[in-house]
Design brief:
Chain lengths: ~290, ~325
């Protein structure tokens, strides 16, 4: 089944039905949504508030969401306790590099699977689909052994290379997208004498911006929050990404809650900014992943 | 399943001279296409071959060996698979994992579908709500687990302080063997609710309006409309969310690693955690590989069963 992204699917346009019932259901909806939003936000507020409290305030039996005074020095302590700035930088660097590679190579491979004909193409594609059913766990031990064999333990290579050349899933998404573009585009260009490279570069690539943005956002989210693999291949504090850096914090400062929560806040901020700027793509990316069904 | 649609190919050998010229042109074009096809796929394929296909093959091989990562792997036949049957810890971890799945999936679906239904209308501030539900999705599981560990703190945590303020005694959420799994379920549901909500929302928006109008003309009330229009047309999304949730819940790791370390005792030791410990604490690589393949078989069978019993009733489209 091919993916068809209906432009209207994300549009909040449902004309109200009978007015009387719609008022009641509207109130119920608001109550439900507000409770849900509160449940989602409260732990984050608690996290932020704890990160700004003194330790006497934290261990008090009458807690309040508002700290007595905003103790920003907790954040200074955080950046002094572990190489937090370096970890932030590592996370940004690894996430951007991997995403750049993923998008590039999923795009080219997806294009080839969708629009170019070559012997063995369909068998190869079935192989790709097959790998998508294998859980990551299966490859964990051998992938670690391969990285160790290459001497990449405790290097950026271990974090970047395995994902850099694109995933089967990303290729699948891009292929489905390229399939939806009209054949006429290609025919016209072929008659004008354009080769596959020019057609890809000049005609198809400019049309893929939404799909690329979606894939990129999806990747950024995944790589930024990745835990298990970095935990396995990185031990050096200076090379740690934020999630495993935070886990290290927790091991070292198990009871220093303001420090731990400050770390959690810092790890959240970059994604929060990305989300505010690209909310549309976050949401569409997820909706798109469901179209696979 | 994915179907590859081939544009009708033109036979290259044609008698007329004009067509013969076009034929050679097409022939050249085809070779050029094949060249670029391989060139475009090469980096992606090599990456996947080295870090996915090769590991899959090695993993299968390793599962028949005993290997500690120091000496050479030693072939032991089906030993690892036989040993799994007698590994009480493995069955405990499998039971814990299944318990997590059985609790979190229905709860997660109910919560995310409820929110999606509430959001599926014209409302003021819809973007604010959506952003709020999405915050747990974009936060890393590590940060989420750290926050919730603090929320669950038996003395100074937000939850117990709140419960005590309304007269309910606080609980040891993460150290009571009976409560630890439900506590983890709550975190998992909280984390994934926004994600599944977006999926359900997309499913809801794809249902044509006129079906509701027709149902209304027939005198169907809100519940009947939900039961007879919304739910049946939402089955593909429901199916997808369920399949993905099952796969996801069998791969729970981060939250357990950060929040409980598998404890108290082995009350929250999940399958993935036990596999991790076997591989990277006890260096039983062969055994861990065999465990991974058992999981693959479990997930594969679970998906097949769902496709057979639920997938068959999935209504993808309505005329």
């Amino acid at each position: 089944m091919t993916i068809s992204v209906r432009p209207d699917t994300m549009d909040p346009a449902a004309p109200p039905r009978r007015p009387r019932r719609s008022t009641v259901s509207r109130v119920i909806a608001y109550v439900l949504l507000s409770l849900g939003a509160l449940a989602c936000l409260l732990p984050f507020l608690w996290m932020l508030s704890t990160s700004l409290k003194s330790s006497t305030e934290i261990f008090s039996f009458e807690p309040s969401l508002l700290p007595e005074a905003l103790r920003w020095e907790n954040y200074v302590r955080l950046f002094e306790a572990l190489p937090m700035a370096r970890m932030l930088l590592n996370s940004v660097f690894v996430t951007l590099t991997v995403t750049l590679g993923q998008v590039t190579f999923c795009c080219t491979a997806g294009y080839a699977f969708a629009r170019l004909k070559f012997p063995g193409r369909d068998k190869l594609f079935v192989l790709y689909l097959g790998t998508m059913m294998v859980p990551f766990m299966v490859t964990l031990v051998p992938a670690y052994a391969i990285i160790r064999e290459l001497g990449w333990i405790n290097t950026y290579w271990a974090l970047i290379v395995p994902q850099f050349f694109g995933s089967a899933y990303g290729t699948f998404l891009m292929r489905q997208f390229f399939m939806t573009l009209p054949q006429e585009l290609e025919d016209a260009a072929t008659i004008d004498g354009c080769g596959p490279l020019r057609i890809f570069w000049k005609i198809f690539l400019p049309l893929t911006k939404p799909a690329v943005a979606t894939l990129a956002v999806f990747n950024i989210l995944g790589v930024w929050n990745d835990f298990l693999w970095p935990l396995l291949v990185i031990q050096d504090n200076d090379l740690k990404t934020l999630p495993i850096g935070l886990a290290t914090f927790q091991g070292l400062y198990a009871t220093d809650h303001s420090l731990l929560m400050a770390g959690a806040v810092v790890s959240l901020i970059p994604m929060l900014i990305a989300f505010l700027f690209a909310q549309k793509y976050f949401v569409e990316g997820i909706a798109l992943s469901g179209m696979k069904a | 399943m994915t179907q590859v649609t081939e544009p009708p190919s033109v036979a290259p050998s044609a008698p007329a001279p004009a067509k013969a010229i076009r034929g050679t042109w097409r022939h050249r074009g085809r070779r050029r296409q094949a060249f670029w096809g391989y060139a475009f796929i090469a980096p992606n394929f090599l990456g996947i071959a080295a870090f996915l296909l090769l590991p899959i093959v090695i993993s299968l091989g390793l599962s028949f060996t005993s290997w500690d990562m120091v000496s050479d792997p030693e072939f032991v036949g089906l030993d690892n698979y036989q040993r799994m049957a007698g590994d009480a810890q493995l069955w405990v971890s499998l039971r814990n994992t299944a318990a997590l799945a059985l609790m979190s999936i229905p709860l997660g679906i109910a919560a995310s579908l409820g929110l999606a239904l509430a959001l599926n209308r014209k409302l003021r501030g819809i973007n604010i709500f959506r952003a709020a539900f999405f915050l747990p999705v974009i936060a890393s599981m590590v940060a989420v687990a750290m926050v919730w560990r603090w929320v669950y703190n038996s003395e100074f945590g937000l939850l117990n302080q709140f419960l005590e303020s309304i007269g309910i005694p606080g609980q040891n959420w993460l150290t009571d063997p009976d409560l630890v799994l439900p506590s983890l379920v709550l975190v998992m549901v909280w984390k994934s609710m926004g994600y599944n909500m977006v999926l359900f929302l997309a499913g809801l928006r794809a249902i044509p309006r006129h079906l509701y109008e027709a149902a209304e003309l027939d005198g169907a009330n809100a519940w009947q409309q939900f039961r007879n229009v919304t739910l049946p047309l939402l089955t593909p999304t429901m199916f997808f969310v369920t399949v993905m949730s099952i796969i996801g819940s069998f791969q729970v790791f981060d939250v357990v690693y950060i929040m409980t370390g598998g404890g108290p005792g082995d009350a929250s030791r999940v399958y993935y955690y036990w596999l991790w410990q076997n591989a990277f604490e006890f260096f039983r690589m062969g055994y861990a590989s065999a465990m991974a393949w058992l999981l693959f078989v479990i997930l594969f069978v679970a998906t097949l069963i769902q496709m057979r019993f639920i997938g068959r009733r999935v209504q993808y489209e309505m005329g």
